[in-house]
Amino acid sequence: MSSINESPVITRFAPSPTGSLHLGNARTALFSHLWARKSGGKFILRIEDTDLTRSQDRFRDELISDMLWLGLEWDEGPDVGGPAGPYCQAQRGEFYRSLYQQLSARDLAYPCFCTAEQLELSRKLQRMAGKPPRYAGTCRGLTAAQRAEREARGLKPTLRFAVPGDQMIEFTDAVHGLQQFASNDIGDFIIRREDGTPAFFFCNAVDDSAMGVTQVLRGDDHLTNTPRQIMLLQALGMPIPAYGHVGLLTGEDGAPLSKRHGSTSVQEFRERGFLSIAVLNQLFRLGHAGDVDGWLAAAEMPRHFRPQHLGRAPARFEVSQLMHWQKVSLERLSQEDFRAWLAADDSPEFIDLVRHNVVLPEDAAAWRAVVQGELAPLGAEERRLIDAAGAGFFADATLAYEQSKGDLKVLTQFLKERTGRKGPDLFMPLRVALTGLAHGPELAQLLRLMPPETARRRLKIHA
RNA sequence: GCUCCCUUCGUCUAGAGGCCUAGGACACGGCCCUCUCAAGGCUGUAACACGGGUUCGAAUCCCGUAGGGAGCGCCA
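^ Those are the sequences you sent over. The predicted structure of the assembly is below.
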């Protein structure tokens, strides 16, 4: 399946369990997954649960369940294990400690005793002076005695990486091409927090490397952070993966997708009844151009995925496009699967009748109510059609219904002779009276499924 | 403020100097089909942010401008 000149690519998805999986993350997960599958490589799931206060088990479970729902199975991960485990960062403390030691021993990292308040003040001052708010290097030159003295006072240090000066860091981004950054623009950054937990820049980079990831795919927001991670890996003498930064996904308001957008978590689409294959088809095309235009089955996606066609510009997520893929995906469902998707006890007749007028389960519920429940209040167009037909028409229609025994053909034949109406003038008022709507599935069958009492009442009420 | 990134129809995108009178998909409009809607068929509206270069020739290369975005966090 992999093309001749492409070697196996090892990718990963590394979410932090601090919230729901939203579409943006799901998309990078999808791309990473597809890239690995396309090349015959591996896809790794790693949980970045270093923020003890914000990480929650229920988010991790939800995340895993969302990934599985989307069909993005991983070859290595917290549940299935693998050669580079464990796959939760909270359990990798020992590994991190050995690296901290290595760095500290070679003076490539140093303890910093500055307090959060001091740092904030310093940043503020720099900003006011029109300078980039970088760490001033206050603790970099501390002597062993000074460090000991501070620790004796009970101060808990963070550990900072000593960024080498006067370097150019270059890398070829898989989507942006050649990137260059000056190390002098980068301040010494924290790699271990005061409480001893590892900071993102550090554990994220070091784990990618240690887990054998060859291609990191992530959002654009990490592009300018990449040189830090490269310097870190260089200092440690660890392999440096290739990086690729895809344009962010934005909501319909054009602002980057975030937890604020609310209705963009995978969970919510799932609950509203969207098919995972519909979501997949939509995400496949956001910031990416495959080599086909039409709907794709999940199994086809790796073949049609084109890493060279990952987008640099932000992509906007529009529900109307998801709706389209939902419709197409629904059409592909067998009656059995469709029924399972509805998760209701509908008759096969009802399902066949209503299928093509349903995009979400709530639509089916509406038709269910038309057949066996109460009608929703009439809309403006519906009202107009009823009024145009007039009370006399419905008096005749009521009569016709009694003659017809529920057979629409007989009913309309009778009504046509009696009123002289035909075509839409004849059918539309009937449809609206009977269903409450100016559009919908076959009226004849709708009528057949309807209890006679209901039909009678709905016609009579307008007479 | 500094560094970096981005900019083709309303939206998602194709386009890697001539194949572009800029293609496709979604959405929208029209027509056909049809008792309605959907589906299907045909069809229409609609874009290279702007300004300068380079070139016989630029959506494609270079430089500016404008507008968006990101990073500079003991958040990831």
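The longest strand of chain A covers residues 168-173. DSSP finds 19 helices and eleven strands in chain A.

Shout if you want it in another format.
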